[in-house]
Amino acid sequence: MSPPKPSGSDPALEAKKKQAEEAEQAKKKAEAEKIAKARTENCERVQRAKATLDSGVRIATTNAKGEREIMDDQARAAETQRLKEILRTDCGPAPQAQAQ
């Protein structure tokens, strides 16, 4: 009788490989959820800030010296444009992860 031929697969090795793949998938899923939560929070924060700017109330900021300054029309327009850009990037559909 000849000895049994090796099948080329080790059940223990396959189990470890599967476990490592599952752990990697869980890690990726947790990271994706974390990013989605941050995007949602950013979107909500930006929407509130834009609503405040759009309301027309006077807004004070603090300069580098710690002095209080009232936002003028030019600063308000620049901030509105910045908020619109953030709304476009964080409030739209999430970008697809690129395959590596």
SSE topology sketch:
Elements: H1 11-55, E1 60-62, E2 68-70, H2 73-90
Antiparallel strand pairs: 1-2
Helix pairs in contact: 1-2
Which ranges are low-confidence, i.e. pLDDT below 50, for 5 or more consecutive residues? none
Large-scale geometry: elongated
Q: What's the end-to-end separation, in Å?
A: 49 Å
> What is the radius of gyration computed over CA atoms, rounded to a whole number of angstroms?
26 Å
- Beta-strand content: 5-15%
Described by strand count, sense and barrel closure, the largest sheet is: 2 strands, antiparallel
Number of strands: 2
The tally of helices reads 2
Q: What's the helix-strand series?
A: HEEH
Provide the structure class. Answer: mainly alpha
Question: What is the spatial order of strands in the main beta sheet?
Answer: 1-2
Q: What fraction, in percent, of the residue positions are helical?
A: 55-70%
User: Average pLDDT value?
Assistant: 85
Summary?
It is built from 2 helices and 2 strands. The longest helix is centred in the N-terminal third of the chain and has 45 residues.
